[in-house]
Amino acid sequence: MSSVSFSQKTLSGAGALWFTVAAIGQMAFIGFILAFYGVRTATGNFAGWNDKPLIDGYIKGDDAGNVVFAAHVLLASVVTLCGLMQLIPALRRKWPRLHRWSGRTFMVIAIFMALSGVWLTVVRGTYLSVISAVAILINAALILAFVGLAWRHAVKRRFEQHRRWAMRTFMVVSGVWFLRVGLMGWVLINRGPVGMTKTMSGPADIVMTFGSYLIPLAILELYEAAQRNANGALKVLMAAVLAVAAAYTAAGVFGAIAFMWGPYL
Ligand code: HEM
Question: Measuring CA to CA, which residue among 257, 256, 223, 250 is closest to residue 238?
């Protein structure tokens, strides 16, 4: 085996490892949304949304806000599932029609998630601090821009460009999931909320809120650059970065299940 193919395999293996950890964490997120919000909404127990700590959630008398909140949080499970499906190569190969339909569903719902999120933040006024609101509004703007680019390249049949923008879209749509995992990973590693405040405006909060989409985007770009580069040492270095990212993600997923989602089910 040549050193190039060894390093290439190591890099792709590390990418697959990270994705496997992330997929488990996203499935847990979907499971939580359905078991918590899905069950309460289906049984008409809207006030029960607030059984877990939220900024606003259910507000008595605010019918419009409650409907948007319900649609936003329930469709969060669908967008997360469709995003995961897009990245599984076997599904793409075996059922290309399914890939196209889940891709369209993912993009349309991603647009809805961004717009309803902006509405909840700006019109309903659901935010903890101005800095955290700015961070998530930038996330929404990136979702809309990236969906537009991925879609345009697909329509024009520029598939390599489409793939790249679709991957970037996956990262920004997963921003709120990364935020939860990032915060819980940080709390676990530091054995407490170091650099965090109740209004999410501490230094660690600020790094996390902006980093929830900027760090994954940066890692994706580095991964793609290492894939294209012939330098074997670079590929192994990037594989090490991904292994660290996978370990951090695993810690965050564990923390989110154990402390953020599990206790409320
Ligand atoms: C696109 C991916 C997104 C997903 C998967 C998602 C998911 C969720 C979930 C699960 C909740 C319920 C809160 C919880 O249990 O933690 C929620 C609430 C909320 N989301 Fe999103 N969201 C997304 C995008 C956005 C964006 C882009 C914004 C803002 C621009 C946003 C703003 C909000 C707001 C304001 C709430 C209400 C929080 C509360 O009342 O406490 N979301 N979202």
Answer: 223
